[in-house]
Design brief:
With about 80 residues, the protein is mainly alpha-helical. It is built from 4 helices and no strands. The relative contact order is 0.10.
Amino acid sequence: MEEGRQDLAKRAQDTGATEEEAHILYHLDEVGRLFYELPGITEVDLATSGQHVSALVRMLASRVAEREHPEGWFFSKRDEQGV
């Protein structure tokens, strides 16, 4: 079931993500849950899937951090200068 507009707006507000990013976070949560519920999944598979989902969450977190604090990211300044 799709997450409601209000739920997305709240997730976006709570995390600093855009609504689009919040939508991705919702689906990443679902991916983690669905992997955990797979019959016969091994601990290794769970660990591997968790690492990949976590990496995607960190990518979104980096976007939020860079957007809210561009002064703290050397590549933001470089990109603004066209370098």
